[in-house]
Design a protein that fits this description.
Pfam families: GntR. This protein is an alpha+beta fold. It has two helices and two strands, in the order ααββ. The chain has a two-stranded antiparallel ribbon.
């Protein structure tokens, strides 16, 4: 995974769309689940992703600073 997330630089992850599950990322990239979780947490902290409780993790709008849609 890069610092901006897998596929994000290629446009595979569109803003306000959910990212794949941790299990899928583990399988797709051959990483440990701990690594995937840590990377997702880092990307949330950087504002690249945001979490909607009981819904999932989503790609933030560029420059959104981790604010979920409708909460700005």
């Amino acid at each position: 995974m890069t610092s901006r997330g897998p596929g994000s630089s290629a446009g595979d992850w569109a803003p306000n769309r959910p990212i794949p599950s941790e299990a899928r990322l583990v399988q797709e990239y051959g990483l440990a689940r701990t690594t995937v979780r840590r990377t997702i947490r880092l990307l949330v902290d950087e504002g690249v992703l945001f979490v909607v409780p009981q819904r999932g993790t989503y790609v933030a709008e560029p420059g959104a600073q981790g604010v979920a849609p409708g909460q700005a």
